Amino acid sequence: MTDLLSKFDGLIAEREALLGSGVRDPFAIVMDEVKSPTEAVINGKDTILVGTYNYMGMTFDPDVIAAGEDALKRFGAGTTGSRVLNGTYQTHKEVEDALREFYGTEHAMVFSTGYQANLGMVATLAGRGDYVVLDADSHASIYDGCAMGNADIVRFRHNSVEDLSKRLGRLPPEANKLVVLEGVYSMLGDIAPLKEMVAAAKAHPNVMILVDEAHGMGFFGEHGRGVYEAAGVEADIDFVVGTFSKSVGTVGGFCVSNHPKFEILRLVCRPYTFTASLPPAVMACAATSIRKLMHSHNKRQHLWENTRQLHGGLTAAGFTLATKTPESAIIAVLMPDQESTARMWSALIDLGVYVNMARPPATPAGIYLLRCSICAEHTSEQIATIIERFAAAAKVTGLPLDA
Ligand code: PMP
């Protein structure tokens, strides 16, 4: 007997075999208590968190929490409506004002998640007869935006300026094209050569560029706008998409732009229009956090110090990392296969360290990772402990290291 769920039998069997070997389920972690941006209680044990996207540690910022509490009391628990009907409160306008100031743009549009921001922007901007040209390692939300829209889709090899240029050169000159790039690619933690990619893209006619700065906001570039700011290509980027679920420390997504017709998107972008807006307390947290991120130079500096310490320490301990140098606040440890990744992940949890386990389809084909993402609030002692525990977990699981 088969039914609609039979297509998942292979995955179910694979998971059962893995869990049958005695490892914990890496996709069913429960945070019993969260003590700070870097510490939680998991399975009753004090655990260092190095697998969250809380890059700037804003989740427990006292001003952010106070703003959220105040808005909760003043505006209630939720809006119960779409942004275009009853769901735009003063708090939503405040976030959009804060974003316009942070990014120095004319327009800002807040979505309920970053996933919906990519989904909506890609599907709405590029329609029938248009082209979306995207990096092969793009985030799922960008691929899903392509699937939802009616444009033709062209992929280029990850971070290859040459392949981007070649593929754009094959498209009809008169057709409109949306090139979609990411500042930081979140699986391997590598950054895009945006200066070269933008120059290559803009050498072709009728090209607009959207860059997803989900993992770059807060600590790349002079104002923390992202990799595109650090690369000096702000004037050539038409749309920046981002999220509040990483450096901002809450939830939500956005797109900022200087395009004079941008505001019409509020009426035609279905993942914006046909869903409830975020609760006012979340918006108050986001607005306060974004404004504080404008002046977080010390935190940024500490985040980079932590990143260098973890990258250097894991390399010295013999782990193989996805990037030779620390390019972003994501340090991905390359693992040989799913089984050893799950065993290492499980050993790390037993030792009190939480990292992300990542596997296809989140990662490129055949790549298994233990992904560390670093927080500005980690102390250098915590980073040293994480490195020690990685080495201890490798010993327990018999993972060969390049010592
Ligand atoms: N873009 C990228 C590159 C991401 O990594 C993510 C989330 N991991 C998103 C978009 C979606 O963000 P959100 O969590 O706000 O849905």
UniProtKB/TrEMBL annotation:
Domain Aminotransferase class I/classII large, chain residue ranges per copy: 48-390
Domain of life (superkingdom): Bacteria
Residue stretches in coiled coil: none
InterPro entries: Aminotrans_II_pyridoxalP_BS, Aminotransferase_I/II_large, AON_synthase_class-II, PyrdxlP-dep_Trfase, PyrdxlP-dep_Trfase_major, PyrdxlP-dep_Trfase_small
Entry GO MF terms: transaminase activity
Cofactor dependency: pyridoxal 5'-phosphate
Annotated keywords: Aminotransferase, Pyridoxal phosphate, Transferase
Similarity section: Belongs to the class-II pyridoxal-phosphate-dependent aminotransferase family.
Protein name: Aminotransferase class I/II-fold pyridoxal phosphate-dependent enzyme
Originating organism: Sphingoaurantiacus capsulatus
